[in-house]
Structure formats: structure tokens, C-alpha cells
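Figure 6 in text form: structure in, sequence out.
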């Protein structure tokens, strides 16, 4: 039989084991990467809000038997692979974006309360799926506000915009977005490729411009160095020329007195010679003047006087002829006025006498008993008759009729004077 001491020892050991088992079932140890939720008993949190659970983060807690239940929520990192296909950005270009996000359940108040309300009792895969769908929605929303160039050129700014957009929604869910990296951006219409080609061309252009600029700078510096060298050479030449000029000036100053004396002597001799030449030239001028006076001026003056006298004589003759012509015309006008209507016929008869005399001077002396019209194609008489006929038609004066009238008048006058 066991002794009382043994029984007591066994009882004590059993009691200790029972106590330890009870303590193990009632005390919960919380690691640094998890949160213990003691739900069942109503308590007020640090902000004074009455909640039906209490949170233990890092440490330990004792569960009230029968009244509380303990749940654990993992706070470790969740890696989410993001892939959005056909997301339209600003400008209507569909893009495919791939990235990686690191999220976790928020462990700080008050965000942790949102996580407990939404994810307590859910698996990590469920939490990951919800977070992934939320991030993809935020990613599409951010893409709609950016152009393809902005998305492709500055991935860091794009990630920051996405972080700012997603953080608010994840905070409402009780999640924390630790990091977000955009790995790849592509599009099916090759828009980004064209941008890349354009950027490559711009890079090549900038490189060529930089190369040309560097070459131009090098050329300019070389030209400046050459210019400085040329200026230095010019300055040296100028100093040399100045030194030579100063030497020549000193030499000239030393020789000035002798040269001045020599020049003065030469000038004096030339002045004396010039004075002598002046007298000779004056004598020659007087000789030439007298010769011109005798050979040219005097004959010209005599010829001019002679021509003046001849002109005066011609003018006097012309004036006398003019006076006689005026006197004759005056008398002719007076006779014309005195003759009355027969003045024209008398004037023509007077002129006709001279005209006929000229005409018949070419033929022998004949007596004209009458005027007969004959054919104009034969001889001098025919020409005379033809001329009288043409004169009648041209001037309206019938020479034959006037002659007949004049002859009849003379005959009548004769008969009156001598009736016998």
C-alpha cells in the first residue's frame, strides 16, 4: 500500500499538472506577427468605444473561461501579383499593366477594427483575392486619368498615384499597402513601341546635337586660341614696327638740319630760276599777243567792218525794193478798186499778156485772127490751145472769150472814133 506521503505527492503532482493544463488553456501567447482577439466580453477600448472584443498584439492574454473565445489574425505580408489587361488610359489606348503589391492586415488602431469586422475568420487566400480585386480596380481608375506617355515615362509617379488611390480603399477594408511596383506596361496596338522609337530617335538626335555642340565648342575654342595666337603675333609685330618707327624718327631728327639746309638751298635756286623764267615768259606773252593782234585780230576786225558795210548795202537795197513793192501793191490795189467788177479780168489779161508772150516766144511771129480748139496731141499750137482750155476749166476764165470781148470793144471804140 502507498503511504500517505506518496499519495500526497501524487495528488500534488496531479494538481500541478491540472493547474498547468488549465493555465495553458487559459493563457494565450501572441507573436509579433499576429493579433489575438478575445471576443465575448464587452469592454471599452483606449478611445472609450464599447466593443465586444479585446485585442492583444504582441504579448499574452488570459481568456475568461466559458465567456470568451480567442481568434488569431495573421499580420504577415501578402504578395499579390497584379495583371490588368485592356485597361483604357487617357486617350483611349488599351494597356496591359503588370505589377507586384505587398499588403498586410493593419495591426494599428483604428484600422485594425475594420480588418476584424471584414476578415476575421477568413483565410489568407480570401483576403488576397479581395485585396487583388480592389487593387486592380484602383489600377484601372488611375490609368484612366493618365496618358500612355505619363504611364510609360514615369513609373514611379504612376506607382505613387496608385498608392495614393488604393490606400484609402484598403484602409477602409483594414488593409495596409506596404509597396507597389509596376513591372511591365504594354499595349496590343504598339503605341508604346512607337513612343519608344520616337524617344530613341530623340535620344539619337540629342546625342548628335550634343556631339555637334561639343564639336562646335571645340572649334570655337580652337579658333579662340588661334585668335589669341594671331593677336599675340600682331602685338609683337606692332611693337617691332613701333620700335622701327621710333628708330627712324630719331635718325630723321638727327638728319633734319642737314636735309632742311639742303632743301632750302635747292628751293632757293628753283625760286631764282622761276623768277628768271617769269620775265622770259612775260616777254614771250607780249610777243605772242602782238603777233596775234597783227595776224588775227586786225584782219578779223577789217573783215568784220567790210561785211557790216555789205550787209548795210544789202539791207538798203532790200528796203528800197520793199518800198517799191509796197508802192506798186498800193497802186495795184487802188487800180483794182477803181476797176470795179472787171478788175479780175483786167488783172488776168495783164498777166496773160506776159504768159502768152512766153508761150509764143518758142514759135515764129504769127498774127492771131482767132482762137480755134484743136486736138491736144499735136505740136506747140495744140499745146497752147490745150493749156487755154485747161486754164478755163481750172480758173473759170475763158481767155478766148475775153480776147474776143476785148477785140469787139476795141473795134467799137475805133468805129466810134472813126465812123468812116
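Output sequence:
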Amino acid at each position: 500500500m502507498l503511504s500517505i506521503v506518496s499519495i500526497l505527492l501524487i495528488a500534488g503532482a496531479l494538481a500541478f499538472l491540472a493547474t498547468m493544463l488549465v493555465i495553458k488553456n487559459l493563457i494565450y501567447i501572441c507573436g509579433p506577427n499576429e493579433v489575438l482577439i478575445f471576443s465575448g466580453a464587452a469592454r471599452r477600448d483606449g478611445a472609450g468605444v464599447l466593443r465586444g472584443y479585446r485585442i492583444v498584439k504582441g504579448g499574452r492574454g488570459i481568456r475568461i473561461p466559458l465567456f470568451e473565445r480567442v481568434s488569431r489574425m495573421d499580420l504577415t505580408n501578402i504578395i499579390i501579383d497584379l495583371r490588368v489587361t485592356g485597361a483604357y488610359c487617357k486617350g483611349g489606348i488599351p494597356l496591359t499593366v503588370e505589377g507586384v503589391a505587398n499588403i498586410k492586415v493593419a495591426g494599428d488602431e483604428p484600422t485594425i477594427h475594420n480588418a476584424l469586422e471584414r476578415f476575421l475568420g477568413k483565410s489568407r487566400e480570401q483576403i488576397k483575392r479581395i485585396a487583388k480585386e480592389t487593387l486592380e480596380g484602383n489600377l484601372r481608375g488611375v490609368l484612366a486619368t493618365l496618358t500612355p506617355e505619363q504611364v510609360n515615362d514615369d513609373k514611379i509617379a504612376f506607382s505613387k498615384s496608385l498608392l495614393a488611390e488604393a490606400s484609402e480603399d484598403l484602409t477602409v477594408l483594414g488593409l495596409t499597402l506596404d509597396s507597389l511596383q509596376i513591372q511591365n506596361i504594354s499595349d496590343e496596338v504598339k503605341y508604346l513601341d512607337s513612343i519608344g522609337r520616337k524617344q530613341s530617335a530623340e535620344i539619337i538626335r540629342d546625342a548628335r546635337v550634343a556631339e555637334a555642340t561639343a564639336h562646335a565648342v571645340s572649334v570655337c575654342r580652337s579658333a579662340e586660341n588661334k585668335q589669341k595666337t594671331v593677336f599675340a603675333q600682331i602685338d609683337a609685330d606692332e611693337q617691332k614696327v613701333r620700335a622701327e618707327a621710333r628708330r627712324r624718327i630719331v635718325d630723321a631728327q638727327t638728319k633734319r638740319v642737314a636735309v632742311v639746309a639742303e632743301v632750302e638751298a635747292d628751293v632757293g635756286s628753283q625760286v631764282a630760276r622761276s623768277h628768271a623764267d617769269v620775265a622770259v615768259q612775260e616777254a614771250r606773252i607780249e610777243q605772242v599777243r602782238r603777233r596775234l593782234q597783227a595776224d588775227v585780230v586786225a584782219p578779223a576786225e577789217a573783215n568784220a567792218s567790210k561785211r557790216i558795210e555789205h550787209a548795210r548795202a544789202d539791207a538798203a537795197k532790200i528796203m528800197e525794193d520793199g518800198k517799191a513793192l509796197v508802192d506798186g501793191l498800193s497802186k495795184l490795189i487802188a487800180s483794182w478798186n477803181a476797176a470795179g467788177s472787171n478788175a479780175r479780168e483786167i488783172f488776168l489779161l495783164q498777166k496773160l499778156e506776159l504768159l502768152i508772150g512766153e508761150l509764143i516766144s518758142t514759135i515764129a511771129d504769127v498774127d492771131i485772127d482767132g482762137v480755134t480748139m484743136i486736138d491736144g496731141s499735136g505740136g506747140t499750137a495744140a499745146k497752147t490751145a490745150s493749156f487755154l482750155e485747161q486754164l478755163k476749166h481750172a480758173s473759170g476764165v475763158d481767155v478766148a472769150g475775153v480776147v474776143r470781148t476785148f477785140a469787139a470793144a476795141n473795134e467799137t471804140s475805133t468805129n466810134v472814133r472813126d465812123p468812116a
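Caption detail: Residues 191-339 form the longest helix (149 residues).
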